Amino acid sequence: AQSVTQPDIHITVSEGASLELRCNYSYGATPYLFWYVQSPGQGLQLLLKYFSGDTLVQGIKGFEAEFKRSQSSFNLRKPSVHWSDAAEYFCAVVGSGSARQLTFGSGTQLTVLP
Amino acid sequence: EAGVAQSPRYKIIEKRQSVAFWCNPISGHATLYWYQQILGQGPKLLIQFQNNGVVDDSQLPKDRFSAERLKGVDSTLKIQPAKLEDSAVYLCASSLGGSNQPQHFGDGTRLSIL
């Protein structure tokens, strides 16, 4: 069965600083990978997704993520964080084969300092 | 396009009472999901529908939880009787279907059990 690990429970950065949120997955074949963001009291919004092809994917709100098969990682990055980026971020994986359930990591809470 | 609609937004009940949640997916989305998100965790899939048929309900506590999707559109999730550990946010999501299609989430129902 697939699994997702987000090793950082909480990250604090200053506004304008760069950001990297870590995500490691476990799955036997090439997975489909997603990053979602959740603001307080709201549902999850899709930031970006990776299915195949170029390992660097661009998403909304200036986010990007890089798929590294050798490290089983799909880290999310943003070069300059805005105060409105404060939220919880979830990495998720779904198997391309019979294991079709979307499995989420436990999330990383991002705090942005002024 | 209109997003996934859920109601109510908040619900407070006492343990052993029953409660029901409603979800209206995005028009044309064949696949509908119910997730349970406990505080501090990522969403966990409870049940997945394809049109009005159940695809996966392996993690649904069937002794107390039930769900239906009449006519392949709206869906309801019911808990009877509720336990303290059912306190969570219940998220509904929909997609066009297929594991490579992103899921679109509603804002969820926050359930508190007293």
Number of helices of chain B: 0
Low-confidence blocks of residues of chain A: none
Task: Give the SSE order of chain B as H and E letters.
Answer: EEEEEEEEEEE
Question: Which structural class is indicated by helix and strand composition of chain B?
Answer: mainly beta
What labels would you give this structure?
heterodimer, A: 114 residues, mainly beta, four-stranded antiparallel sheet, globular, B: 114 residues, seven-stranded mixed sheet
Description:
The complex is a heterodimer of chains A (114) and B (114). The radius of gyration of chain A is 14 Å and the shape is globular. Helix content of chain A is 0%, strand content 51%. The model of chain A has no long low-confidence stretch (mean pLDDT 91). In chain A, the strands form three sheets. In chain A, strands 2, 5, 6, 10, 11 and 12 form a six-stranded mixed β-sheet that branches. In chain A, strand 7 and strand 8 form a beta hairpin. With 114 residues, chain A is an all-beta fold. Chain B has 114 residues and is an all-beta fold. Helix content of chain B is 0%, strand content 48%. At the A-B interface, strand 5, strand 6 and strand 10 of A face strand 5 and strand 10 of B.
Question: In a nutshell, what does this entry contain?
Answer:
The complex is a heterodimer of chains A (114) and B (114). Chain A contains no helices and 12 strands.
List the helices and strands and how they pair.
The complex is a heterodimer of chains A (114) and B (114).
Chain A: E1 3-5, E2 10-14, E3 19-21, E4 24-26, E5 32-38, E6 44-50, E7 56-58, E8 64-68, E9 73-78, E10 87-94, E11 103-104, E12 108-113
Parallel strand pairs in A: 2-12
Antiparallel strand pairs in A: 1-4, 3-9, 5-6, 5-10, 7-8, 8-9, 10-11, 10-12
Chain B: E1 5-7, E2 10-13, E3 19-24, E4 31-37, E5 44-50, E6 53-56, E7 65-68, E8 75-79, E9 88-95, E10 104-105, E11 109-113
